[in-house]
Amino acid sequence: MGAVTSSGTAVERAPKQDRSRATRRRLLEAAVSCLAERGWSGSTVSVVAERAGVSRGAAQHHFPTREDLFTAAVEYVAEERSTALRALRPRGRTEVVAALVDLYTGPLFRAALHLWVAASNEPQLGGRVTELEARVGRETHRIAVELLSADESHPGVRETVQGLLDMARGLGLANLLTDDGPRRERVVAQWAAILDGALG
Amino acid sequence: MGAVTSSGTAVERAPKQDRSRATRRRLLEAAVSCLAERGWSGSTVSVVAERAGVSRGAAQHHFPTREDLFTAAVEYVAEERSTALRALRPRGRTEVVAALVDLYTGPLFRAALHLWVAASNEPQLGGRVTELEARVGRETHRIAVELLSADESHPGVRETVQGLLDMARGLGLANLLTDDGPRRERVVAQWAAILDGALG
Where are the stretches annotated Disordered (chains A, B) (predicted)? Predict the structure, then answer.
C-alpha cells in the first residue's frame, strides 16, 4: 500500500510540475511580447496574465512583483537565444557577425530596450536590470569569442569583439522605428570583412 | 513723428524678438534635460514650462503640442552638437572617433533614446521622430565623413562609416545604466586603430 501511494504521488507530482513549468513559460513569453509591443508603461502582471490565459493569482504565485516578471522574462528569452546561438554551426565570420547582429533586431531586443530605458528612471528596477544586463552581456561575449574563434590572449582582441557587440546593439536601435534591414546587411558585410582582417 | 514712431517700434521689436528667442531656447533646453531625467511619461509641456520659468501659456504659444516641444528640443540640441562637432579640429582619427562616440553618451542621447522608445509605441509620435532621426542621422554621417577624411567614392567606405556610427550608438546604450567610461575608452582606441587601417 505504502509503495503504491508513494508511487501514485510521484506520478501525480510530475505532471503537476510540468503544468507549472508550462504556465511559467507561457507567462514569460507573453511578458516579452507585451513589453516589446506596449512598452513598460503598458506592461503589467494583469495584462500579461490575460495574454497568457493564466489567472492573475496564478501569475502572482509565479512572479510576486511586476519587476520579478519582466526581468525574469528578458533573462529567459536571452537564455533561449544563447542556447540557439551556441547550437549554430556558422560557415564563416560573416555568418557569425550576421547571427550576432540578429540577436539585437528581434522582439527580445525591443523588450530589453524598453526595460533598460524604464530602469534608467526607476530606481527599484535599475539595480536588477543592471545586474541582468551584465550577466547576459558576459554570456553573449563568451559565445561571440567562441563562434568567431577569437584569441583573447592577443592584445586588442577583447576590445574588437566588444566593439562588434556594441555595433550590433546600435544596429538594433537603428531598427527600432523603421525596417533598417537592407542598410544593415551592407554594414554587416563590410564590417565582417574588416573584422576578419583584424582578428587574423 | 512718423520716423520717430517707426524707429521706436523697430527698436522695441528687436528686444521683443530676442526675448522670444531666449524663451524658446530655455524651453528647448529644459525639455531635453526633462526627457533625459524623467523619460517620456514624466515629460509634459507644464513640467518643462515650470523648469524653464515660463508660463504654461507662453510655452504653448511656442509649442502647441507636447510632440512639437520634444521633437523640436531633440532637433535643437542635435544641431548645437553638430555645430560644435564641425568646429572641432581633431588631431587624428582616434580623436574623431572619440568625439563621435561622445555624441551618444550625454544627456542629448539619453533624451533622444526616450523619444525613440516612446515613438515605437505611439503612432502620433512615430512619424515625426522617424523623420527627425533620418535628418539628424544624415547630418551626423556627413560630419563623420568630413572629419575622418573618408572617401566615399571607394567601395565599402560608406558602410564603414555607418558601422562606426552604429557602434557609437551601441556604446551610448551601454552607458545608460552604468558608467561605462573605462571600457568604452579601450573599445574606442581599438576600433579607431581598426578604422584607420580600413580607411587607409
Answer: 1-22
Number of helices and strands in chain B (H, E): 9, 0
Is B169:A164 a contact under the CB 8 Å cutoff?
Answer: no
Across the A/B interface, how many CB contacts are shorter than 8 Å? 122
Count: domains in chain B: 1
Closest residue to B120, CB basis, from A170, A176, A189: A176
- What is the spatial distance between Cα A142 and Cα A160, in angstroms, rounded to a whole number? 13
CATH code, domain carrying A193: 1.10.357.10
B39 and A120: CB-CB below 8 Å? yes
**DSSP secondary-structure letter at B176?**
S
The neighbour count for residue B5, using CB atoms within 10 Å, is 9
Name the grid cell of B180.
561605462
Low-confidence ranges of chain B (pLDDT < 50): 1-6
Residues B170, A191: Cα–Cα separation, whole Å: 15
The helix/strand/coil state of B149 is: coil
- Nearest Cα of chain A lies from the Cα of B191 at a distance, in angstroms, of 7
Q: Tell me the pLDDT of chain A averaged across its residues.
A: 91
Q: Which position has the higher pLDDT, A200 or A14? A: A200
Domain containing A109: what range?
2-199
Q: Which amino acid is at B109?
A: F
